[in-house]
Specification:
Blueprint (H helix, E strand, L loop, with lengths): L6 H15 L12 H5 L9 H13 L5 E9 L2 E7 L9 E2 L4 H14 L26 H5 L18 H7 L6 H6 L15 H16 L4 H20 L5 E2 L13 E3 L1 H12 L3 E2 L2 E2 L3 H7 L14 E2 L20 E5 L3 E6 L4 E8 L2 H15 L6
Antiparallel strand pairs: 1-2, 1-11, 3-5, 4-5, 6-7, 8-9, 9-10, 10-11
Pfam families: Beta-lactamase
Protein name: Beta-lactamase
Keywords: Signal
Length: 375
Amino acid sequence: MFMRPTPLIALALATSSLASCGSSGPAQEPPLSEEALAAVSKQPGAPTRPLARAADDLFTREGLGETRALVVYHGGTLAVERYAPGYDADTRFVSWSMAKTVTAIMIGMLVADGQLRLDAPAPVPRWQRTGDPRAEITLRHLLQMRAGLEHTEAGDPPYHSSEVRMLFLDGRDDMADYATAQPLEAEPGERFEYSSNTTVILADIAARALTGSSDPDIRRQAVTDYLAARLFEPMGMTSVVPEFDRAGTLIGGSLIHATARDWARLGELLRNKGSYRGEQLVPRAWVEEMVTPSPKSPHYGLQTWLNRPTGEDQHPLIPARAPESAFSMIGHMGQYVFVSPAQKLTVVRLGHSDAPERRAMLQQLADLIELYPAS
């Protein structure tokens, strides 16, 4: 015989049923470690716990690769600083292609000094021979990666890459000689093609503008002294170690070493349009030129990546999640100095991430960046 349950029993059964079939709510995040909280300064310019969480995820979340260093400045004040085990504030990190932006800064200072001209034919002796079509390549073409030279950045197999051949194989002793010897594959100015070889040509032009010498030791010393006196020493960037090839050419597309703090100092210099503590180290107009889109690539300026949409799904930065005025130095395997003037923000992330990991890591980095409102 069916018996109606008492009200108390019915309530208990209903509660049990709802608990078994309903959602238990969002999963609780693990508590923040002391290390995560200690990485955030007392006045970070954003809510402390969300900032500590976003930073912690860069180091701990799976699928992002290995974050080795994170330094965030907001409004000129250190907001976040953290390192993975085995790395610290004194560790020099290799730039990879972040060096390209340093090379562009050096070229800009030489233009300001009157030693180079932006829209004149690039002063490469090999190209000045009668009838050589490469004589139409300007300094601006090189800076905007639209010289038209037959340079292949990535190859399959790797030794088909012009960069690999220049850095490690037949071009390694005199990289500029190798890079300038390549023929045209497009009209100068007509096509964007990212190329580390192109930046080495710029570094060679700088060395010849400073010395007029082919002596490797003279070239190496002149570039080292110029960068130190005009850029690194005034900013207190004492950790910087640039590399040169045997011909004395700065490997300006790939190999400059510095601490995460010093990479942040360079980002801050660009955020402040070349000014450091009231001293204009790099002409303001040159920094503005560096972050002006090329006519052939809206996401690239002068050796600097821009956070501007291209109309394509794949993008090296985060145009959907940060202001279009933001820009970045970007290096191989996930080196970033991301600068957002509208947010008064400089973010340095250094580490090791493959292509899929970089895409995921950038979205995590965007979670941190979005904690800072644009003004």
